[in-house]
Amino acid sequence: MAGRPGTTLGDLWQEFWFARVPPHTYAVFRVAVGLAGIATIVGAWDLAFWRIDGIAPIPGGGLGVRTWILDHGYSVPMAWVVRTILLAGYVCLALGIQSMVAAVTMFVGSSAMLWWNWYPFSGAQHMLHNLTLYLVCMDSGTVWSWDAWAARRRGTPLTPQPQPIWPLRLVRCQMAVMYFAAGCWKLASPDWRAGDALHYVLNSNVFQRMPGSVPPALYPLTVLLTYVTVCWELLFPAMLWWRPTRVFAIAVGVLLHLGMWSTIEIGAFSLTVLAGYTAFLDPDRTEERVRRLTAFLSRAW
Question: Which residue numbers in the chain have pLDDT < 70?
């Protein structure tokens, strides 16, 4: 586009934000967000996280809803209702059941979840809440969904229409800002500047997935990975502008998040971030790649 004669900055802006692409990436994004939501609810399944008189903020303030629930003895029933509705909503997203309705419901529901009890949740749940907003801005149910399957069964199949790419662009922008901000925060930490942060995290019984200490012989490796993490986060926005570096940045990110998931207890953080990574799929090739993957898995089984 940039090399064509007569191309203006306005044309590039229009193409960057409003180029129309096949909807298959939106479907993959919906499924990924739904799965991340399911993992979040299952990870906080203990009813103590949902009861007003459990591990929750002290009732009071606002409209007095929490106090009213507690005073009338509805703490346990409401805990079951809130947890069940949230789980059902994320299942509907993953399966594509009334996709748009589910997206709007879970944008409101994920906000309510954080309001109901923010103690067991972290920035991962705030990110999950943001990702549901992007789903409200896209039609993610025309392909690879219960909605599409049901329409075919009725003899009125849905016709997938190209959609503007800007919701995917916004997800990518959020990821870039998130990583750059995290990198700047790490630069302010003496442990990260000294290269010791990862060593301390892996040896902390607060975060360890498996008990034990990291062997001293691996200290140089943890120092290297600490600096790699900081540099990667700071350079992530710049690396997105050129395809080879973009592929490299995303590949490193996937490996880092899989590594974090396998070694430290961080809840659904890695899965939520990887759900956001689906926005980096090439919209023009997503359908072909998914079909190849499903064909490969079918042969493997």
Answer: 1-6, 61-62
Determine the 3-state secondary structure of 20 from DSSP. Answer: strand
Q: What is the 3-state secondary structure (H, E, C) of 218-263?
A: HHHHHHHHHHHHHHHHHHHHHHCCCHHHHHHHHHHHHHHHHHHHHH
Domain segments of the chain: what residues?
21-165, 166-282
How long, in residues, is the chain? Answer: 301
Rounded CA separation 168/226 (Å): 30
Widest pairwise Cα distance in the chain? 72
**pTM score above 0.90:** yes
**Residue 75, token pair as written in the block:** 């703490």
CA 139 to chain centre: 18
Location of structure tokens 């395809």: 243
In 96-165, where does DSSP find H-type helix? Answer: 99-116, 123-136, 146-153
Distance CA 272, CA 36 (A): 5
C-alpha distances out from residue 263 to 201, 204, 211, Å: 10, 11, 10
Whether 40 and 116 have beta carbons less than 8 Å apart is answered as: no
Predicted pLDDT at 223: 96
